[in-house]
Amino acid sequence: MEEVEAHIQLGNSINVKKAIIAGDPARVSKIAKFLDNPSELKFNREFKSIVGYYRGEKILILSTGIGAPSTAIAIEELFNIGVSQIVRVGSCGSLNDNLGIGDVVVATGVVREDGLSKEYLPLSFPACPNNTFLESSFRISTKDIKYGIIRSHDGFYMKTNYQKESFWSEYNVLASDMETSILYVIAAVRGIKALSILNTVVEFNESLEEGVNDLVNGNAKMLKGEKTSIQLALKILTEGD
Questions:
Q1: Strand pairing report for 104-112 and 47-54
Q2: Is residue 204 one of the residues assigned to a domain?
Q3: DSSP 3-state assignment of 149?
């Protein structure tokens, strides 16, 4: 019997090098609609996986759950089964009045305010994407894609959130998420090619609850941004090594 990773419940026999990760298990099924011959693999805890083909290349889609700890587990276990290229298709909250609902952000660097990434590398180490993936994104994407530094953090409901978001907004940090910093840091440690593409679901200084509920309920602008981010991720992964 094949040995499988404890959390994602996948093993080396899947024989795949390229993966898209997403926080929400429901987004895995959405991404799978863009693939040829998609096949469901496992669904354990927050880790749902589907494999299929895009432009003839095998792609694994895996959900990671929310935040750095579960995302780190997913990335480490993907690495253990041979995955060497990962693009995150996620969501973010805007820190800029010019970044609206459905706008897509490619993270060129990350303010590391999560609690886990410093356990891998000191905070003085910059969290950056793979240059080849970033160059591919520039080449493939339209003028509507935004590029810039984002912030990764660990929670929504602390009293300090507004103050922190306002601070980083003053220094042109575009958006906030909870997973990109750990992706970029582990990618650096393990030699993984990585990029994070984010769909804006909450406007700056607007209600988190309203934004997340709109995402769940299928806000048209959010759905458009989600589609754009999925298509960009798939094209980057299959453009060529």
A1: unpaired
A2: yes
A3: strand
- Is residue 143 predicted with pLDDT exceeding 70? yes
- 89-109 pLDDT, tens per residue? 999 999 999 999 999 999 999
Question: What is the reported pLDDT for 213?
Answer: 62
In a domain, 108, yes or no: yes
| Distance (Å) of CA 224 to CA 15, 99, 202 | 32, 15, 14
- Are the C-beta atoms of residues 119 and 182 closer than 8 Å to each other? no
Say which residues have a Cβ less than 8 Å from residue 79's Cβ, sequence separation at least 6.
Answer: 186, 190, 192
Q: Is residue 186 in a domain? A: yes
Distance of alpha carbon 194 from alpha carbon 31, whole angstroms: 18
pLDDT in tens, 11-38: 999 999 999 999 999 999 999 999 999 9
* Residue 119 to residue 111: CA distance in whole angstroms: 15
How far is Cα 159 from Cα 29, in angstroms, rounded to an integer? 35
pTM of the predicted protein model: 0.95
Pull the structure tokens for residue 187.
Answer: 């990618």
Is 190 within a domain? yes
Residue type present at position 95: L
Q: Quick check: 215 pLDDT over 60? A: no
Domain harbouring 162, CATH code: 3.40.50.1580
- Our count of domains for the chain comes to 1
Structural element, H or E, at residue 93? strand 85-94
Domain that holds residue 22: 12-238
Closest CA to 237 of 104, 84, 118: 84
CA gap 122, 37 in Å, rounded: 42
